[in-house]
Amino acid sequence: MQRSKVKVRRGTIEEAVSLSRLIPEFENPAGAETYRSRLEGRDHLILIAELDQPCGFKVGYNREADGSFYSWMGGVLPDYRRHRVAQALADEMETYCRTTGYAYIRMKTRNEHKAMLQFALHNGFHLIGFKAYSDLMKSRILLEKKL
């Protein structure tokens, strides 16, 4: 299928929640109330990627007030993977963070999400921590990128 260039725009909580429910890796995606409680009163960014329809999202916020921006949630619909959607979203978030004055972007992923870990490492993130869970695959890998 021929696709045009990925367009990234600002989005809403409702759009992010709707897309998150279509990502098969998300077992119990967060609802709108969880998004509101995390984002309300904080600098935040909700991005929506579109090709022929909304196909991906990325949400982040100022979590620690320490000069870092936390890339909290994101995903790309399976049919749109390998079309640079995740890269377009990551690039837009990084541009936002640089122009807004953040020094770092931080994120975490589960050990079971190998593609996300590879994507982060390819994009200049470094491992800064690990939080073990009894199920090793559910353990969290903490990453950071200096801007």
Net shape: globular
Rg over C-alpha atoms, rounded to the nearest angstrom: 15 Å
Distance between the termini: 35 Å
Largest sheet: 7 strands, mixed
The count of DSSP E runs of length 2 or more, i.e. the number of strands, is 7
SSE ordering: EHHEEEHEHEE
Question: Which spans have pLDDT < 50 for at least 5 consecutive residues?
Answer: none
Query: Which strand order do you get reading across the main beta sheet?
Result: 1-2-3-4-5-7-6
Helix content: 25-40%
Q: Mean pLDDT across all residues, rounded?
A: 95
Counted by DSSP, the helix tally is: 4
Summing up helix and strand content along with how strands pair, one would put the structural category as alpha+beta
| Percentage beta strand | 25-35%
